[in-house]
Design brief:
mainly beta; 458 residues; 34 strands; five-stranded antiparallel sheet; eleven-stranded antiparallel sheet
Length: 458
């Protein structure tokens, strides 16, 4: 077993650089820690291990526009199936401005939902939220590993420590369906891993509901450390990879996690079967505020909507969060009021977050004070899940326009594309008998406007 005092092994697995979308672009390394302290949500775009930079697949386009070289990857937070009960001093860790109050507690306080904060953000990779001082075991579901990925040198597991590591010595292990260790366990002591960045955080007391925020835990500077490894570090081989069903962390009580991520090209886990269908998204901008409304046609395992805004239509920041219904077969109405006096065009979008940590971004609204603008493109899928045919209904789009439909895997690999002429109208039939069963993202583009929804092939 890899011991925590094995300095060589720790150094090999030490993440030495991270890139996130805080403030549009944030880059920090162990050799040159960025003096900026993120204080809100920000998603991990890339990380460097053993001299190689790997993207997470969250925003490769942004990395490219910055002229950065990287190995394209696809990473996502593992879904939480079980976690220890919070005890006194178990905290929910949030960027100091996450709750809308830069120096103090909000009213009402953020939701007490540790599993949510371990998988929020794009692909669940939000470094600005998490938990601290967690005890017991953290189990994360996984349905299978790819045997050919063992020993290829590409990181497969990525874990985080976002506060003071203290005596944190966590144990990581893969388990089979009977709860038995597959391969070997790995112990990691985060106090032997270099600081890759610093941030400013509030630590709400999670053993109380509603949570409380004490003075000594308000707007405090903290460190970030990340550790990553190939499957082979756990004794996983081509022979035993097929028996893995979960990933377990035995938590020391000083464990401070933002997320535990996995390589989507290496592992698969079972996602909830149905999507959240956004049927309308509208807004009205006034001199001192913007009022946004949206509607869902159905929801399954929905967690929340993050409201994001931008001044240029390209770089977005989160300004609010609205809890979702979780499960609903009826139409649901939502609204959010954003106080702002921004002149000119205001851009808004929604980040719809599922309970498994996956997320989907809505089309962008461009609003000008005094004018009401709605998002005209609305797409629904039926049946969903589907068999050999998928029928898409396109409503509200400008008549007489060609339509492009693209299906990709959750890892971003395109599996289908078809251009429909204007004569196809608003009812599009996709022949998908040869498509393997699974969950896909359907991207529908009409007259330059794109909407995305999840669909499931039975």
């Amino acid at each position: 077993m890899l011991q925590a005092n094995d300095a060589t092994a720790q150094a090999v697995n030490n993440v030495t650089e991270i890139i996130t979308d805080f403030g549009g672009f944030f880059q920090s390394a162990t050799t040159a820690v960025n003096p900026t302290l993120p204080d809100n949500s920000h998603d991990l775009l890339a990380f460097t291990l053993n001299g190689t930079r790997y993207s997470t697949g969250v925003d490769d386009a942004l990395l490219a526009t910055r002229g950065l070289t990287f190995v394209a990857g696809q990473y996502a937070a593992l879904p939480v199936s079980a976690i220890g009960t919070p005890v006194t001093n178990t905290k929910v860790a949030l960027g100091a401005s996450f709750d809308g109050v830069p120096n103090g507690a909000s009213n009402p306080v953020p939701a007490n939902n540790i599993p949510f904060y371990l998988r929020d953000g794009r692909n669940g990779l939000n470094l600005g939220t998490g938990t601290a001082n967690v005890t017991g075991t953290l189990d994360l579901s996984i349905s299978g590993l790819t045997a050919t990925a063992v020993g290829d040198g590409i990181p497969d597991i990525l874990v985080t420590q976002i506060a003071d590591p203290s005596n944190s010595q966590d144990r990581y292990q893969f388990l089979d369906a009977n709860g038995q260790v597959v391969g070997r366990a790995v112990d990691v002591a985060f106090n032997s891993i270099g600081v890759v960045a610093n941030w400013t955080a509030d630590f709400y007391e999670a053993s109380q509901s509603p949570m409380t925020l004490a003075a000594g835990f308000t707007r405090t500077p903290r460190t970030m450390r990340l550790w990553s490894a190939d499957l082979s570090a756990f004794g996983i081989t081509a022979a035993n990879a097929g028996s893995v069903r979960s990933f377990r962390i035995a938590l020391s009580g000083s464990s401070d996690l933002a997320f535990v991520a996995y390589n989507r090209q290496t592992a698969d886990f079972v996602n909830p079967p149905l999507p959240v269908v956004l049927s309308a998204f509208e807004g009205e901008a006034a001199a001192t505020e913007t009022f946004l409304t949206w509607q869902t046609a159905q929801e399954v395992n929905s967690a929340a909507f993050e409201v994001q805004t931008s001044t240029d239509g390209r770089t977005f920041r989160t300004v609010g969060r609205v809890q979702a219904a979780g499960a609903s077969s009826q139409r649901r109405q939502y609204s959010y009021q954003h106080p702002t006096t921004q002149a000119g065009v205001r851009y808004y979008r929604l980040l719809q977050i599922d309970q498994d940590g996956t997320s989907t971004t809505s089309p962008v609204l461009a609003l000008t004070a005094g004018r009401k603008t709605g998002q005209p493109l609305q797409v629904t899928a039926a049946p969903n899940p589907f068999g050999s045919q998928l029928v898409l209904t396109v409503a509200g789009a400008e008549a007489g326009q060609p339509t492009t439909v693209e299906l990709t895997t959750l890892a971003g690999r395109r599996v289908y594309q078809q251009d429909f002429p204007a004569s196809a109208g608003q009812l599009l039939t996709l022949e998908l008998a040869q498509l393997p069963a699974g969950m896909y993202l359907a991207r529908v583009t009409v007259a330059g406007q794109t909407t995305v929804l999840k669909v499931v092939k039975q």
